[in-house]
Amino acid sequence: MRKMGLLPIALAAALVMAGCSDSNATDPKTAGKDDKVVVGFSVYDMQYEFFQKMEAGTRAAATAKGWEFKLHDEKSDENEMVTGAQALIDQGVDVLIISPFKPSALGPIIAKAKAKGVPVIVDDIGGGGAPYDAIVISDNAGGGKLAADYMVKQIAANNKTSKNVASITCEPSAVYAARRNAGFKEAIEKAGFKVVAELSGNSKAEEGYKVMKDILAKNPDVAGVFSCNDPMGVAAANAIKDAGKNPVTDIVSVGFNADPEAITAIKAGGLAATVAQDPKAMGELTVKLAEQAIKKQAITFSNPAEREVFNPVALITKENADTVK
Amino acid sequence: MSTDTQTPKPARSAPASRADRAGRPTLGKLWDTWGITAILALLLAATPLVAPDFLEFSNLQSVLRESAYLGIVAAGMTFAIASGAFDLSVGGQLALVSVVTLIGYSAGGTALAVAAAVATGLACGLVNAGLITGLRVPPFVATLGTLFVFRGVAYILTQDGPKTLPYDQIGSPFVKIGGLNVAGIPLPFVIMLVVYGAAWLLLRRTATGRRILSYGSSPAAARFCGISETRIRIFVFALVGVSVGIAALTYITRVWTADGSAQDGFELKVIAAVVLGGTSLKGGKGTLIGTFSAVLLVSVLNDMLVSQGVPSAYQRIVLGCVLIVALTIDGLRTRFAAPGSFRRALSVLVQRPSPVDGA
């Protein structure tokens, strides 16, 4: 028993004397064991439908290219994210695709990838200021513009003369989501409208409801409202209904994300429209970028400053709501 | 005890004296200390068949590096559980210590970061100890409360403070703690080995260790023997706090980021590892060797499941089943705790009277 206790100390002392090495500075492994490309995909959490679709798109595109596909599930845990993604790099993947649970934990992963010469493509969520090769995100500003264009048409169809609209934002720290409201504002102002109220509902349904009540009290003549996500969009539409107005024909309510609750509401006339992201296409796009990165081809960025590549989004109204699964 | 307890007498001289029984290893006692280690050895022996990639050097390094933060806190928690108490706040402590460490690093570099980690851990432990001894709140309730408080404070601190280690600091000695290897062995694991060595000495070779165990086995009897409940509580919870402080150093330098939500559910992982290792939830019995092996068992199993592409839902089920099976074996073990009981059980199985105790 006594030996067991002292052994670790003796071992540790011996090791300290034996000298140090840095795991981040190991020699770059020659890419791949054979000529087959191996792609590692570390996914945010396979519990969520969004990421299941993203995984399906990534896997299909990689398999179509004849690549070997290795999946790692971060399980919404930053520790699992770092450990598992680094393990993929250790297993000798040629390129790493990652949808990070915590973008701020990308640092140690990308440090290791750089040491081994493995390119990193980030899929959605955020880049955390780390030197990734490219990041794929939905065209949030474009989605805001789609919402604005639809709203202009629908307001005209409703025979409303008011040029006032409202915009409900997500929490200020959600930088990508803020682009939705910015894109909406730019497009709708170009069409001659005025955003009379721009308030944050912190992404939450209950706050979205309250914000919409306040807007209705102060600006009862608004002809449309755009919300940064669907929980707030549906809640705002409910506030409009509770005020005795119609969220399609009186105040055009548009959300963002195509959540199931929004699709249900659109079919029932409880919401005018939403904007759908396409995680499957995002996954396919990351594989295309991964191939370019491996071949050291130049990637065409939508926003070169942050190495962002935008994936198109689609407007969902009552006409095409059935096409959304 | 007299010296003749040290010399094992032949088992034939039945009925054995009490002292004799204490000195003889039984299957139950061996299981207490080495059971989970044996299972770990079996699992490792099976790896070439089920997960050949596991034995690659870089993967072994990764498993050891990742085990450290859980293992170090589990060492502290072994003392708490052996003393008959839980610390449910370790997840909150880890989040808070990590966040304070980030602030310390951005303000004063490596030295301040290390000092901030250990000091914050100790402070958290003393807050728990103060609530338990000063306000007479049961440990379970007190630490459940501070779990939320610590996480809340961590959230407040990250609102304006740093949330991550900056990428350009990759060469600093502090950031290297998590990634450095000492003669091929990850530094976090080396730290864990040192912690376990010190903890083993403390539990098995000092009067304090004996007092903790006797208090855990019977608080009333310990009080009659002049053991101060207050001092035991303060010591144990401060120890858990310091272990979290050390663990956070190996955590934050590997993951680089923390906020109030960091490692949600950590406390249950730690308690599961300690219990899996063979430390009794009833107190009075603690095994650091068991805890150490249980932490490695969980890490190895997790790594194998992940690398074999097992879906995460099934990973959770497997880990839960391992815990249940281990505790079931632990329950069976108590039947074989007395000397000769295993042979008696065997003799019943083969339908003939036992040649030894023959009762």
TrEMBL record, chain A:
Signal peptide per UniProt: 1-25
Entry keyword Membrane: no
Domain Periplasmic binding protein: 39-297
Subcellular location: Cell envelope
Pfam families: Peripla_BP_4
InterPro entries the record matches: Peripla_BP_I, SBP_2_dom
Gene3D superfamilies: 3.40.50.2300
Domain of life: Bacteria
Keyword tags: Signal
The keyword Cell inner membrane is assigned to this record: no
Coiled-coil ranges from the UniProt annotation: none
GO MF entry, a single one: carbohydrate binding
SUPFAM superfamilies assigned to the protein according to its UniProt record, in alphabetical order: Periplasmic binding protein-like I
Family the UniProt entry places it in: Belongs to the bacterial solute-binding protein 2 family.
Protein name from the UniProt record: D-ribose ABC transporter substrate-binding protein
Organism this protein belongs to: Dactylosporangium siamense
UniProtKB/TrEMBL annotation, chain B:
Record-level GO cellular component terms: plasma membrane
GO molecular function, one term: transmembrane transporter activity
Keywords for the protein's UniProt record, in alphabetical order: Cell membrane, Membrane, Transmembrane, Transmembrane helix
Subcellular location: Cell membrane
Sequence intervals crossing the membrane: 34-55, 67-88, 94-127, 139-157, 177-203, 232-253, 288-307, 313-332
Bilayer topology term: Multi-pass membrane protein
UniProt cross-references to Pfam families, sorted A to Z: BPD_transp_2
Record's compositionally biased regions (Low complexity): 8-17
Region described as Disordered: 1-21
Domain of life: Bacteria
InterPro entries: ABC_transp_permease
Name of protein: Sugar ABC transporter permease
Lineage: Bacteria, Bacillati, Actinomycetota, Actinomycetes, Micromonosporales
